[in-house]
UniProtKB/TrEMBL annotation:
Residues 23-276 form the EAL domain. It comes from Noviherbaspirillum pedocola. This is EAL domain-containing protein.
Length: 277
């Protein structure tokens, strides 16, 4: 225990370009952290704007480090992606999320969960088989799981990613385009991908009530999505004014600090109960 902590590893952002032995030691540290239960999944509620109900939550990974405290995913996910360690994280995360869905389902909580996929996950031929096995084992309906993918994650090998996404969609799993609007070739992908949801990038939402350009982009994206039969999620909703604007303009779902911050799984049912009360 002391031995693996002693090196005082700098963090992913600093180490990603560091010497190979440091990278190896950080991968080892992450692997051990996962085995020790230091990786935890937080859940951020997604509010359906027409019904006013919490219909889903996004699973967001944190590393609860014994010395450094709660480490945000931006500090280690990019490194895990660069080194391929994400191939170990994603199956762990999906297992945790599907087990959590089964628990909530058993407790009568009617909620869907979104999980984030990385570019490497989309190239993994075993992904859909693994996910469908987990759903069956835990008795969770595929429709309760949504997988969020970014446009940039599709770029490595679009044809292969599309093949794997089609397998996931055929199982009944929902697909969402994350950070929509900041990637490339978005309209081409919208045409060919079996997606159900667009998540407008936070950067368009931040000034939505004041910026005519941002509101024009958001409004036209809402219209485009609805014409394509997709639902629109606004992320980064921080103020009542943002929420009001989105409600007025037909956005389907909102997520952001203005509704709730990501929270531990155990807090979510109580939070939802008091939110709807
Ligand atoms: P993302 O998928 O775009 O997730 C949304 C991020 O925005 C989360 O940050 C969330 O806490 C934050 N956020 C939510 N509402 C607001 C708001 O109102 N204002 C602001 N300023 N931020 C808000 P988080 O949890 O730090 O995650 C950052 C990124 O790390 C995620 O961005 C995602 O790309 C990645 N990530 C997180 N968990 C996972 C995971 O399990 N797997 C993979 N592959 N990536 C993950
Ligand atoms: Ca996301
Ligand atoms: Ca996002
Ligand atoms: Ca993001």
């Amino acid at each position: 225990e002391a031995k693996r902590r002693h090196c005082g590893i700098a963090f992913a952002a600093d180490i990603g370009t560091g010497p190979a032995h440091e990278q190896l030691s950080l991968i080892g540290e992450m692997r051990e952290a996962m085995a020790n239960g230091e990786f935890v999944v937080f859940y951020q509620p997604k509010l359906a704007l027409r019904s006013g109900r919490i219909v889903a939550a996004e699973a967001l990974l944190r590393w609860n480090h014994p010395e450094r405290g709660m480490i945000a995913p931006s500090r280690f996910i990019p490194f895990a992606e660069q080194t391929g360690f994400i191939r170990e994280i994603t199956p762990w995360l999906l297992d945790a999320v599907i087990q959590q869905l089964a628990l909530w389902q058993g407790a009568g909580l009617d909620i869907a969960v979104s999980a984030n996929l990385s570019a490497l996950d989309l190239l993994d031929a075993g992904l859909s088989g693994r996910v469908s096995g987990l759903l069956k084992r835990h008795g969770v309906a595929a429709e309760r799981l949504c997988l969020e993918i970014t446009e940039s994650a599709l770029m490595d090998d679009p044809a292969l990613a599309l093949e794997h996404l089609a397998e996931l969609a055929a199982l009944g799993i929902k697909l969402s385009i994350d950070d929509y609007g900041v990637g490339q070739a978005s309209l081409t992908y919208l045409k060919s991908l079996p997606v159900n949801e667009l998540k407008l990038d936070r950067s368009f939402i931040t000034a939505i009530a004041e910026s005519p350009k941002d509101s024009a982009i958001v409004l036209s994206t809402i219209m485009l999505s609805h014409a394509l039969g997709l639902s629109v999620v606004a992320e980064g909703v921080e103020t009542p004014a943002d929420l009001h604007w989105l409600m007025e303009h037909g956005c389907d779902i909102a997520q952001g600090y203005g509704i709730a911050r990501p929270m531990p799984a155990q807090q979510l049912p109580g939070w939802i109960a008091s939110y709807s009360a």
